[in-house]
Design brief:
heterodimer, A: mainly alpha, two-stranded antiparallel ribbon, 13 helices, 2 strands, B: D-Maltodextrin-Binding Protein, domain 2, 2 domains, 5-stranded mixed β-sheet, 3-stranded antiparallel β-sheet, 18 helices
Chain lengths: 306, 421
């Protein structure tokens, strides 16, 4: 009896230690990801939080100043709130038409009568793989105030030249256009993938019932695409809130009408070397994106279930 | 057993690869006195490659020049200094970042410790006073080039406007900034061209002509009351009518130059190349003369030796040699920037300088005279941030989104807010 239990314990212990070994090697196998994630993901995140409570010009000393950075950001920084407003304005100007256009393009690309489908799909996706710097440079020339293509075309139909880089309207539209040009195709391809997951039977049944294309789009396609739409809305929200390269290259303008939140963050850190303040902006950005994404999620759920 | 061994072998190899990948830059030679190589950080345009090769032949020390974009060099340097490793033996620092580096003197070797005193009379006074701290006991870097401001103008447009075209006569007629604005109005009335691309370019040029600009040497903000700050604003904010409102060095600027729609460009010698690139077909239509009310400095750097360098003496020796008058002359002859050493201003290469783009046979003499007129203005750490606020404010007047009074208030308010943080 005693020996038996003894053997059992040894057996158990043996099995147990082998299991531990397996755990160990398992952790070892996935460790490269976690090490890299820790170094480049978690550490900067925590460190940013830490320095956001300090005044730090990177070379000099670090001084703890508590919530001062956050307080002056919220109460005494018109430029920050301007950048928040600009970001939302550009986001709305780019994302809403963008997603609608992408949905229509995807719906069109999914039609049975369309020939050369692969060609169109490739073409619509092409802008997304272009370098954002090249896009911004080309669009800056197109939206030039003196010799720009857009102003030339406008002059042909008798519209007065618009100072694209010198007015709120001009700068927001120009930047939103760049964003749209790059991301419509991306979203269209995602929608297209979603569309192809919808069973053909539904459309056939609808056709037999006498529903036209528009009714099909409204009553079958959009409700069935709901999860995909939510995904693209959340994605474009996160992307739109972090808009940086386009305004940087197009120019923020004399009234800072092109100053977005991340551009402001960058300027604080790397032009004015207020790293503590920039870190505080980064955390504000984090909260704003979370809140805004939740609102969006809520709204898109409501709209598409209505 | 062999499984275990190979496992450990794999782990160790993995970490070794990671470590060596992170560490491959630290191939330090054992000899403290004579390094086999020195690293130098700079941005394009210094023209040091040929001289570095020659230096290696003479001394056996190879100079490893690592180039990056202008902004990146400074950001990389600041990051390397902050993290305590990775800084080069020698780094170029532009005058725009100079005061920030001076505030952190302890990050750099004081070049007076390596014989820097011998350089005191080699360089322009303005350059030398920038290179040293206010007390004059710390030498941060060896001066490189200088960017004396002059005025490039279109002879044909001036003629059409009824202005003189001979450089001496132009300089005599446009001898104050008020006269410049008046001449600009004449250009606007009689031709299709604008006098200048943007008022902010006039503003910066005027601001840089005095010792006292935005800050006193105690870092007190005087941008709201210093004579030069007020005067620069006064002239520039009343020059909106003669300005095209196009940013310098953009495609629009290039088109405007090529179309002959801009009559004058206020520039340092190195920027002439930008004009050539933008508007090659306008060659021969330009001439150069003095800017109103003296020169100014745009660009120009210093070769510093960070504390992290293991061979400060060797680094200093190279910097001293490569920026000595003879070498600066050679850099200039090979199309590099303008030398900061007045002793070679009499050399034929400068006195007889010619350029097909410009109808002047006095080009080098003009640059040299302008260089000697440069005033060593005190900038301070926040100079560039404040300056860009006032420049933006001027553009907002040109954009028609603010009156001069509103623009001034906006810029001042924002400057004071940023400085109070």
């Amino acid at each position: 009896m005693q020996s038996e239990t003894g053997r059992l314990t040894i057996k158990q212990r043996k099995r147990f230690s082998q299991k531990t070994n397996e755990y160990k090697s398992g952790y070892l196998f996935i460790s490269p990801f976690f090490i890299l994630f820790g170094v480049f993901g978690v550490f900067p995140l925590v460190f940013t939080l830490y320095i956001s409570f300090h005044q730090w010009d990177i070379l000099g000393t670090t001084e703890f100043i508590g919530m001062t950075n956050y307080l002056s950001l919220i109460t005494n920084d018109p430029l920050f709130w301007k950048s928040v407003g600009n970001t939302f304005s550009i986001w709305a100007l780019s994302t809403i038409p963008q997603l609608i256009a992408a949905l229509l393009i995807a719906f069109f690309l999914n039609q049975a009568f369309l020939k050369y489908k692969s060609f169109f799909r490739l073409s619509i996706f092409m802008p997304n793989v272009t370098s954002v710097v090249a896009v911004a440079l080309v669009f800056s020339v197109i939206f030039g105030s003196q010799y720009g293509l857009v102003n030339y075309v406008l002059s042909l139909i008798g519209v007065e030249a618009i100072n694209w880089s010198g007015s709120y309207f001009g700068t927001h539209v120009a930047i939103a256009t760049m964003v749209m040009w790059r991301w419509i195709g991306y979203n269209a391809i995602i929608y297209l993938a979603g569309l192809q997951g919808i069973s053909k039977d539904l459309y056939e049944a609808a056709t037999i019932d006498g529903a036209n294309k528009l009714q099909q789009l409204w009553s079958i396609t959009i409700p069935m695409l709901r999860p995909i739409i939510i995904f693209t809305v959340v994605q474009s929200t996160i992307g739109g809130m972090q808009l940086f390269a386009e305004p940087l290259l197009f120019g923020q303008g004399s009234q800072y009408q092109g100053l977005t939140m991340t551009l402001y963050l960058y300027q604080e850190a790397f032009n004015r070397f207020s790293f503590g303040y920039a870190a505080a902006i980064a955390w504000m950005l984090f909260f704003i994106i979370i809140i805004f994404s939740l609102i969006n999620l809520f709204l898109t759920r409501k709209i598409s279930s209505a | 057993m062999w499984i275990k061994k190979s496992k450990w072998f794999l782990i160790i190899t993995y970490f070794l690869v990671v470590l060596t990948a992170c560490n491959n830059s630290d191939s330090v030679s054992e000899n403290e006195e004579n390094p086999s190589s020195l690293t130098l950080w700079a941005w394009p345009g210094f023209g040091l490659e040929e001289l570095a090769a020659e230096y290696e032949e003479e001394t056996g020390i190879s100079i490893n020049i690592q180039e990056a974009e202008y902004g990146d060099v400074h950001q990389n340097l600041i990051t390397a200094l902050a993290s305590g490793s990775g800084a080069p033996d020698i780094s170029a620092v532009d005058q725009g970042y100079l005061d920030q580096m001076k505030q952190n003197e302890d990050q750099f070797h004081n070049l007076f410790d390596f014989g820097g005193e011998e350089l005191a009379d080699v360089y322009l006074d303005a350059k030398w006073s920038q290179a040293t701290n206010t007390e004059g006991d710390f030498l941060l870097g060896v001066p490189t080039d200088v960017g004396p401001m002059v005025m490039l103008y279109r002879e044909d447009i001036f003629e059409e406007a009824g202005l003189p075209t001979n450089p001496d006569e132009v300089a005599a007629e446009i001898d104050t900034w008020e006269a410049y604005v008046e001449a600009g109005k004449q250009v606007r009335e009689n031709t299709d061209a604008y006098m200048i691309n943007r008022t902010s370019d006039i503003y910066v040029a005027i601001l840089d002509q005095a010792e006292e600009q935005y800050f006193t040497t105690d870092e007190e903000f005087i941008g709201d009351k210093s004579t030069q700050s007020l005067r620069a604003w006064e002239v520039a904010s009343h020059a909106v009518d003669i300005s095209m409102n196009v940013e310098r060095s953009t495609p629009e600027w290039g088109t405007a130059l090529a179309n002959g729609e801009i009559a004058t460009v206020l520039l340092p010698p190195w920027m002439l190349q930008n004009v050539k690139n933008a508007a090659p077909d306008t060659a021969g239509k330009w001439n150069i003369t003095f800017m109103p009310e003296g020169s100014g400095n745009f660009g120009g750097s210093f070769l510093t030796v960070p504390k992290q360098s293991d061979y400060p003496q060797a680094a200093y020796d190279f910097a001293k040699w490569v920026m000595a008058p003879e070498q600066q002359l050679r850099i200039f002859e090979n199309g590099g920037p303008f030398p900061s050493t007045p002793s070679i201003y009499d050399e034929p290469a400068i006195q007889n300088l010619e350029d097909d783009f410009v109808n002047s046979d006095q080009l080098g003499i003009l640059y040299a005279e302008a260089a000697e007129e440069i005033v060593a203005g005190y900038k301070g750490v926040h100079h560039d941030a404040v300056s860009s606020l006032f420049q933006d404010a001027l553009v907002s007047i040109e954009d028609g989104s603010a009156t001069p009074e509103q623009a001034w208030d906006n810029a001042l308010q924002e400057a004071e807010r940023q400085l109070s943080r």
